[in-house]
């Protein structure tokens, strides 16, 4: 078998078979290490970020639950205060029933203290100064003619005035109660205290007010205490709510006892237990706001304008409920604040990852500058000396062959002399691009190893031959059709010398490079614009 073969008559041909998959392109140990570090840090950052999200969500849930528990305590405290008013009403009801049953009798008939007014169309009580401070006394005001001493109204008046000691005790215990009163279906009202009620006059239309109309049997057949909606008191001075208890005598509706409660006192009670993340609303059964308290003094309730969570906590003593409007923004800020340490750790990890990524990218750039030729962008001779031993060792481990080709641009010195060095640089880049495009696999490695010299390393798996690839390289440069008037062929061309490292004889790299260089010299001596493949000598056959 001849030792070399030009492109016109190849001395050997590879067996034709289905092409094997291309071997992977090599990665440097530094690249593998950098990828592993970045992957590890990215995974840590992803886990830490996910942990932060869960931690923040948990913090928001804890803050919401804490606010709900505080709201339940606030509702319990408000229920207690409202219960006191209801118990006071029940005490007045019990006392009134004892009066009606005759078990208790009044000291005197209050009719003797009544005076007619409005031409006998109304009446009121006028107590002389010796009776004491009006703040400790009540006031009767009614509509209609002045009742007689033995009139049934007189009996009811006696009962109403007899409630004075209990009304006084209620007022002393609850300073936020402006009035306690008995309202009769017989068109009169006893108001305690008299002080501040001097100008108040009973009018029949008052019986249509909610606090009395809902006491009638047709509206309240179970005779239970009930709370009114907020309204302005008789003097239109402030908002109040009234809790009322119907009063019967022998199953017949006589009237009702009522306690007025300032709405401002309810607001103070709600504000006594601040809820840092919630606007607190006391609402009725229809969801209408009775009073509202913001999380901080002077802060407006803009919860309806922002994303919020609404918690409803019903009261037991009244048909009302506490509504807590929790701002999601406030909950988030609180959770972020409580998770600041964990978030700072995630931030440090993110910055570390960014630093490592930047450092790795800079190292890659430096490594690329050290490995690549500045003019053509191909691997340089230094990187050839690094990768060639790796490819040689890989081919031996895998049982593949390794093709080595050296390429030289024909008459390139004459090209530079004729066209100039700037045009020569353009020609080098064009040839490099054409050679690179002709190599189809990522494992095919192209190098610029000298001025106009290139080298190619190709992994040859079983059934793959080197000659077709060399022919493609030669044709790729011819297809440029780049004029070269100083060349006999009239256009730019290349010469290729190649050899194969593989079984049964493995050359070392130095010997293989020399053999490929000899083949390149032979291609030039033979007229250039061709390829010569010089195979290694076969080992001697065994004798005997």
Give me the secondary-structure topology.
Blueprint: E1 4-6, H1 29-100, E2 114-117, E3 122-125, E4 139-143, H2 152-162, H3 164-173, E5 180-184, E6 188-192, H4 210-213, E7 226-227, E8 231-232, E9 239-249, E10 252-262, H5 263-271, E11 278-283, E12 289-293, E13 308-314, E14 321-327, H6 328-338, H7 340-371, E15 379-380, H8 381-398, E16 401-409, H9 412-419, H10 421-438, E17 445-448, E18 453-460, H11 467-478, E19 494-501, H12 509-525, E20 531-534
Parallel strand pairs: 15-17, 19-20
Antiparallel strand pairs: 1-20, 2-3, 3-4, 4-6, 5-6, 5-10, 7-9, 8-9, 9-10, 11-12, 11-14, 13-14, 16-18, 16-19, 17-18
Helix pairs in contact: 1-6, 1-7, 9-10, 10-11
Overview of this structure, please?
With 544 residues, the chain is of the alpha+beta class. The protein has twelve helices and 20 strands. It has helices at 29-100, 152-162, 164-173, 210-213, 263-271, 328-338, 340-371, 381-398, 412-419, 421-438, 467-478, 509-525, and strands at 4-6, 114-117, 122-125, 139-143, 180-184, 188-192, 226-227, 231-232, 239-249, 252-262, 278-283, 289-293, 308-314, 321-327, 379-380, 401-409, 445-448, 453-460, 494-501, 531-534. The strands form three sheets. Strands 2, 3, 4, 5, 6, 7, 8, 9 and 10 form a nine-stranded antiparallel sheet that branches. β8 (231-232) and β9 (239-249) form a beta hairpin. α9 (412-419) crosses α10. The longest helix has 72 residues, at 29-100.
């Amino acid at each position: 078998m001849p030792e070399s073969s030009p492109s016109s008559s190849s001395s050997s041909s590879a067996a034709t078979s289905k092409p094997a998959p291309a071997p992977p392109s090599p990665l440097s140990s530094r690249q593998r290490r950098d990828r592993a570090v970045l992957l590890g840090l990215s995974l840590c950052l992803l886990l830490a970020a996910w942990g932060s999200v869960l931690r923040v969500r948990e913090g928001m849930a804890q803050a919401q639950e804490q606010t709900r528990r505080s709201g339940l305590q606030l509702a319990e405290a408000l229920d207690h205060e409202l219960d006191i008013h209801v118990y006071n009403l029940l005490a007045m009801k019990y006392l009134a029933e004892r009066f009606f049953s005759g078990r208790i009798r009044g000291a005197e008939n209050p009719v003797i203290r009544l005076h007619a007014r409005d031409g006998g169309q109304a009446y009121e009580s006028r107590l002389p100064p010796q009776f004491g401070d009006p703040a400790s006394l009540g006031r009767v005001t009614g509509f209609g003619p002045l009742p007689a001493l033995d009139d049934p109204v007189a009996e009811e008046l006696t009962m109403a005035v007899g409630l004075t000691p209990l009304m006084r005790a209620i007022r002393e215990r609850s300073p936020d109660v402006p009035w306690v009163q008995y309202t009769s279906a017989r068109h009169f009202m006893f108001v305690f205290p008299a002080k501040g009620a001097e100008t108040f006059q009973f009018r029949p239309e008052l019986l249509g007010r909610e606090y009395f109309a809902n006491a009638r049997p047709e509206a309240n057949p179970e005779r239970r205490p009930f709370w009114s909606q907020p309204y302005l008191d008789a003097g239109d001075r402030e908002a109040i709510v009234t809790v009322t208890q119907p009063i019967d005598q022998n199953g017949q509706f006589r009237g009702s006892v009522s306690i007025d409660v300032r709405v401002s006192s309810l607001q103070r009670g709600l504000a006594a237990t601040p809820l840092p993340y919630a606007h607190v609303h006391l609402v009725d059964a229809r969801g209408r706001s009775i009073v509202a308290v913001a999380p901080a003094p002077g802060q407006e309730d803009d919860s309806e304008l922002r994303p919020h969570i609404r918690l409803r906590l019903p009261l037991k003593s009244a048909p009302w409920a506490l509504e807590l409007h929790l701002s999601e923004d406030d909950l988030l800020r609180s959770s972020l604040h409580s998770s600041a340490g964990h978030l700072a750790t995630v931030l440090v990890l993110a910055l570390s990852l960014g630093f490592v990524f930047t450092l790795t990218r800079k190292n890659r750039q430096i490594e690329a500058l050290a490995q690549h030729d500045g003019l053509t962008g191909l691997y340089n001779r230094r990187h050839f000396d690094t990768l060639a031993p790796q490819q040689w060792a890989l081919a031996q481990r895998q049982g593949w062959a390794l093709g080595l080709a050296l390429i030289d641009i024909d008459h390139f010195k004459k090209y530079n002399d004729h066209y100039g060095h700037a045009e020569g640089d353009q020609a080098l880049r064009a040839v490099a691009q054409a050679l690179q495009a002709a190599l189809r696999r990522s494992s095919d490695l192209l190098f610029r190893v000298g001025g106009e010299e290139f080298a190619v390393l190709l992994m040859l798996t079983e059934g793959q031959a080197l000659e077709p690839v060399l022919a493609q390289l030669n044709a790729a440069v011819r297809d440029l059709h780049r004029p070269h008037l100083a060349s006999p062929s009239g256009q730019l061309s290349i010469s290729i010398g190649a050899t194969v490292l593989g079984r049964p004889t493995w050359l070392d790299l130095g010997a293989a490079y020399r053999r490929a260089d000899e083949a390149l010299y032979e291609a030039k001596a033979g007229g250039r614009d061709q390829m010569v493949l010089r195979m290694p000598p076969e080992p001697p056959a065994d004798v005997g």
